[in-house]
Structures are given as C-alpha cells and as structure tokens.
Design brief:
three-stranded antiparallel β-sheet, two-stranded parallel sheet, about 5% strand, elongated, binds zinc ion, RVT-Znf
C-alpha cells in the first residue's frame, strides 16, 4: 500500500483514536471521495460535485484551437472530444437534469456562436441537431438519453460473467440474494443505487436469460421463458397459485422427473404449465444459465452502447438528402451551410421578419423581391447570372432549376455531361458564395459582380479538387472542370 496515495476515512472514532491512526502515516480524507476525478457519492450530486465536468468542457470550448474552428470543425469537436469527456461521467452517474441542461446549453452556444459567453443564436433546434445525418441532423447525441444508455451498462454488469469488483460488492451488500428486478427502490439508501434501479424498466427489454441448469435464473423475475418474466404474466398472486417462492431459482422448481408446481387453477397458470412442459428440463442440463444482452431481437453476448442507443433513441423518417449534403469529400463549411439552407433555417430577411422584427424584407441583391431562400439562391437576377456561368462551365446549356427542390433533385442525377461529385462540389461552393455575397451587401463590405464571384468559385473548386486528388471520385474532376473553360 502506498501511504502517500492513501487516505483514511474514519467514522465513530474518538479524536484520540483518530490521531493514533493518522500517526501511522495516513492522511485523513474528507467526503466526497474522488476516484479517477469522479466523486463517489451516496447522496444526490450537487452542483459542486459535477462542476469539474462543466469546467473541463468550458476549458475545451475556450481553448485557442477551439476558438479558431469553423461551424463544421466545432461539430467535429463536439462529437469527438466532448463526448469523450462526457462519456466518462455519463457511464458512471445518471446526472441531475440541471447538470445535463447546463452541458447542452454549453454545447449549443459553442456550436452556433463559437464561444460560450453569449446566448446561442441557434439556426436549427438542438433536437434536430441531435438526429443522425440520415434523419436530417448533425449526428450529435440527445444527452439525457445517452446518459441512460451508458448507465444501462451498470445494470448489465450485475448479470455479466466477468464480474467487476463493483458488481460483486453490489450483489453481496445491496441485493443480498434478491433479484435486481424485485428489489424495492424506495427502501434503498444510496442515491446512485436508486438511480440505477430506476433504469430497470428500460433494462428489462435487453437482459434475457438462456437457461442451462436453472440455478442462477430467478423463476419469477428473469426473462428466461418464451412467455417473458412470469411475474408480469400472472401477477403477484403467482407464487401462491403455483406454490413457488418469489426468490426461487428455475432449477429449484424442477427435478429430473419434472416440474414441481401446484396444479393449475386459472387459465394463466395453465398457460405456464403448458409452456414449462414444452421446455427441456433444466435439472437434466449440465450447463450454467447465462445472460445475454438482446437488442431488437439480436443477441449480443455483452452490452453494446451503440446498439442499445440505436434501439432507445427516437427515430425520425429518413430524409433522403444527406448524401447530397454530406457527400464524400465535401468541404465541411460548404456542407454545413448547405445543411442549414436545406432545412430552410438561414436567417433570411423574410424569416427574421416572421419572428416579429420590423425590418426591410427585400432582397439585398435586387431590392425587388422578398428575400427568401429560393429567391436569393435561385431566382434573383444575381444568382441567375452566376448559375448561367457555372452551368455553362459544367457543360450544360441552360439553368434547369428555379426551386430548391428542383436544385436538390438535379444535384445528383446521373448523366454523361458532368460527374455527380463535381456537380455537388460546385453547387455547394456556389450556394456558399451567394450567401457570402449576400452578407457582404448586408454589412456594407466589398462585393463582387456575378463574374467576379464566378472567378472566386472557379479558384475554390480547383483548390478543393487538388486537395482531394487522392480520392478516387475526385481523380478526373479537374479535367472535367477545365474542359469547358475558355
Ligand atoms: Zn433578388
């Protein structure tokens, strides 16, 4: 034992006795204990307990590297580093709602503002951001549900064969031979243990028991039979009806000759009798029972966060456009703007006015029409001139789209004129530049004509293709892009 790394916690001792112990070279610790940076708690976590987590996140969001990131880079940081930091806590505690709200608010501010000091001016709701990309979001995680998903592993550990120290201790001191499914949550003293028990309604869909000799499985509560947990089927009168104790194991209810239960006096009891007779007798088996983690009918030998998450989360209908926005080799900042535009969440003047602000709603380019997404990007004379130049360069004679839906449909059709990847790259670069030009006009910054803008896009596209020349889908693109240049 390393005395310098060991702290002593005492209870019920006099000051003299405490002094005697500390004289042996141990320093006296105070609660809450921290282990690997996490507080080991008996009571509900308070703000001071989870402040280290918030501080870690704030430090990540305010580091100079984070401050220099684009929207797209911030999304990546949120998904990798931040989830890495969060996961450590999320898999240990069911964090209080207030804590998770604070984390969400930090993430939201960071994503949209790039800093965490101001309120976020979010263009897309956090709920949408948390949908997978195929379902229209950015693929971040819904934090309350992610917390539950990771904590379900703690329930699994109580069934797993590779018993952890925590699981062993919990079985001996908390379960004391009772099933986790039947233990009364209200009688438990520890807040953390209570919060794990509250996950049982979620966990029971995943934990199944494969019966061997029946000595481990609880007859009433474990999900071992084709009828599911029998207590749910028959109710609390079941033990009396069948003469089987609540704590009985499956194995204790049968002998090599048959099942040892009372004759059936109800339809449900009869159903159980019939089911039992159709099973091989556990008493004749030499294997042990084993537990599995079953997700949507798929048997996993152990808990899997990814599968469990996918089963628990709220699925949205697939949008069908994610490959047009996040195509392979996309320029992150362009794809990000395309995503916001696809959801029609860019702060155009008509959208801002619809929130109740009195301002000029006319287009910054032509001043003739209300500024909507479809107008500025597709129908305004400025963008029409630009698209004509762009399309001619791609080998097309005329502009084929005047609505956003038509643009999106056209973006990935297969033809012999232009490779799809080049079309997607050029469309996103054009949308990006039009929005940039629009903002330049709004903020009285220097602006470009459609011809000037085209030159900038030309340069952007060349640079992007050269930077991706090792990707198979980009290899021939420069030739295609230069083919119709004059
Ligand atoms: Zn216009």
């Amino acid at each position: 034992m390393n005395r310098s790394k060991t702290e002593l916690f005492v209870a019920g001792l006099s000051q003299l006795e405490t002094n005697d112990l500390t004289a042996l070279g141990f320093s006296l610790g105070s609660l809450p204990v921290r282990y690997l940076g996490l507080p080991l708690m008996h009571r509900k976590l308070r703000i001071c307990d989870y402040r280290p987590l918030l501080d870690q996140l704030k430090a990540k969001f305010t580091s100079w590297t984070a401050r220099a990131l684009s929207f797209a880079g911030r999304r990546e940081l949120l998904s990798s580093v931040i989830h890495g930091t969060i996961n450590f806590w999320f898999s240990t505690f069911l964090l209080p709602k207030g804590c998770i709200k604070s984390i969400e608010s930090l993430c939201c501010r960071f994503l949209w503002n790039g800093n965490i000091s101001e309120r976020a001016s979010a263009k897309v709701s956090w709920t949408t951001v948390c949908h997978p990309k195929e379902e229209g979001g950015l693929g971040l995680r819904d934090l309350p549900l992610w917390n539950k998903t990771l904590c379900l592993k703690l329930v699994w550990l109580l069934f797993s064969e590779n018993e952890s120290l925590w699981a062993h201790w919990t079985k001996v001191h908390r379960l004391k031979g009772e099933s986790i499914w039947s233990i009364d949550v209200e009688k438990q003293a520890s807040w953390i243990w209570k919060s794990i028990l509250k996950l049982r309604p979620l966990a029971e869909d995943f934990v199944k028991c494969i019966i061997g000799n029946g000595l481990m499985a609880n007859f009433w509560y474990d999900d071992w039979s084709p009828l599911g947990p029998l207590i749910k089927l028959i109710g609390l009168s079941g033990p009396r009806q069948l003469g089987v104790r609540l704590t009985a194991s499956v194995g204790s209810v049968c002998t090599p000759l048959g099942w040892n239960i009372r004759p059936a006096r109800s339809d449900i009891a009869m159903q159980i009798h019939i089911m039992l007779c159709s099973l091989p007798l556990p008493a004749l088996s030499s294997c042990s029972d084993r537990y599995i983690w079953q997700v949507d009918g798929q048997t996993l030998e152990t808990y899997s966060a990814r599968h469990t998450w996918d089963s628990l989360r709220h699925h949205q209908p697939p949008q069908g456009w994610e490959k047009k926005v996040w195509y392979r080799g996309h320029i992150p900042s362009h794809a990000f703007l395309m995503w916001v535009a696809q959801l029609d969440r860019l702060p155009t003047r008509t959208r801002i006015a619809s929130w109740g602000q009195h301002l000029d709603t006319y287009c910054c380019f032509c001043d003739n029409f209300p500024e909507t997404r479809d107008h500025i990007f597709l129908r305004c004379e400025y963008s029409e001139q630009l698209w004509t130049l762009i399309l001619r360069r791609l080998g097309y004679q005329a502009v084929m789209f005047h609505t956003w839906t038509a643009l999106l449909e056209w973006s990935d059709i297969k033809d012999t004129t232009c490779p799809t990847t080049l079309r997607l790259l050029v469309i996103q670069a054009t949308i990006y530049k039009i929005w940039f030009e629009r903002n330049a006009r709004l903020h009285s910054s220097p602006t470009s004509t459609p011809q000037g803008c085209f030159k900038i896009i030309d340069r952007l596209v060349r640079q992007a293709i050269i930077a991706r020349k090792n990707r198979k889908s980009f290899r021939t693109l420069l030739r295609h892009w230069l083919k119709h240049s004059i």
